[in-house]
Design goal:
It is a single chain. The chain is an alpha+beta fold and about 350 residues long. Helices cover about 30% and strands about 10% of the residues. The protein has 12 helices and 9 strands. It has helices at about 10-15, 25-30, 35-40, 55-60, 65-70, 80-90, 120-125, 135-140, 160-170, 200-215, 220-230, 300-305; strands at about 105, 110-115, 145-150, 150-155, 215-220, 280-285, 310, 340, 345. It has a 4-stranded antiparallel sheet with strand order 1-4-9-5. The chain is globular and about 60 Å long. It starts with 7 loop residues before the first helix and ends with a strand.
């Protein structure tokens, strides 16, 4: 989508250190890459299509907020128009975002299958080898198992900075998002997903909102999140099996920053959820554990971080392999781990 894409192949060469299977020593080398190198950026500045949005701002700045919402959700609009529409809504007030009236989508009860067929592990590792993907990362997704999902609701969007500010102000909660520079809230990112928080922070937000509204908010379980992203079907991404750079805010898009929720309408999930892939990784309710019938995989995250909360969906600092709906991830001590969350509700 953007001219920064021209540099991505360069990092592929850095990540494909052996051209095939990557050793533990080589994995350490990958983890020691600079943040720019890990996101496929060259040392010198690379121009982006988002460097000049003056034409779009002049064109859209007089529009009513309801029209701006129509713009950002219109798949026929170009990305720069959708992005600017979302940014303008931060200044005039985004009618989609209300901490006390979160947009929730009903998901029906269903018996679904979760996980990955072990026979597919090698194929996926080979497919994403140039990103440094290791077999143990994918083995965590195995095996396939069936589970009954009760009806529930799931937020249409990830929780935003504006909503999280309401929580902080009302509750006096002391832990601020690391992404808020000097602990300050920036109105220009009001409708961007809140991120770089802990799983416990996300849990506490759910507890606070439940008490405020007399409802049962929580984080989704892993199977619930995967059901929302796949509709119970055997698909790789919320929109299908083929990755599309203009469907999600991942490194491939070249944006390299958070974006207003909902401006990737082509990436809508089976039930209408947006930003399930990309933008920010989303904590679920479960700590990492082995799926039924599988052995616990001691990958680098478990060995170095210990017990950790699972996150799904990838982010703007990660490549497409993290945006896969089955991928089980977690927070590592790095600025590249952009962790947010989405509300679930028991009904």
């Amino acid at each position: 989508m953007f001219s920064q894409n021209q540099s991505i192949e360069a990092i592929h060469q850095k990540l494909s250190l052996t051209g095939a299977i990557i050793s533990s020593n080589e994995l350490d080398n990958i983890n020691r890459l600079s943040e720019r190198a890990a996101m496929a950026l060259q040392d010198n500045y690379i121009a982006s299509d988002l460097d000049d949005l003056s034409e779009q701002f002049r064109s859209l700045m007089e529009l009513d907020k309801e029209v701006l919402v129509e713009y950002l959700s219109d798949i026929n609009r170009n990305f720069k128009e959708r992005f600017v529409a979302g940014q303008l809504l931060n200044l005039v007030g985004d009618p989609r975002i209300n901490a006390f009236e979160p947009a929730m989508i009903n998901i029906p009860a269903q018996k679904i299958t979760v996980g990955l067929d072990p026979k597919k592990v090698n194929k996926i590792v080979e497919q994403y080898a140039h990103y440094g993907v290791l077999p143990e990362w994918i083995k965590k997704e195995t095996p396939v198992f069936s589970i009954d999902i009760a009806p529930f609701r799931l937020g249409k969007y990830p929780v935003t900075n504006l909503e999280y500010k309401e929580f902080l102000v009302d509750s006096g909660y002391e832990y601020l998002p690391d992404s808020w520079e000097y602990g300050t809230y920036k109105v220009e990112t009001a409708n961007h997903p809140v991120h770089t928080i802990s799983a416990e922070d996300a849990d506490n937000y759910c507890i606070w909102l439940s008490e405020k509204l007399g409802r049962k908010f929580r984080l989704p379980t892993e199977p619930e999140w995967e059901y929302a992203a796949t509709g119970g079907k055997d698909i790789e991404f919320p929109w299908g099996n083929d990755f599309m750079p203009d469907h999600a805010n991942t490194v491939e898009s070249g944006i390299l920053r958070s974006t207003p929720v909902g401006i990737f309408p082509k990436g809508s999930g089976p039930f209408g959820h947006l930003d399930l892939a990309g933008n920010v990784e989303e904590y679920v309710a479960d700590n990492y554990h082995a799926y039924p019938g599988a052995e616990l995989i001691y990958d680098d995250l478990l060995e170095k971080e210990g017990e950790y909360r699972v996150a799904r969906g990838g982010s703007y600092t990660r490549f497409r392999d993290l945006a896969r709906s089955r991928r089980r991830h977690g927070r590592y001590r790095s600025k590249l781990y952009i962790m947010g969350f989405r509300l679930a509700e028991t009904i």
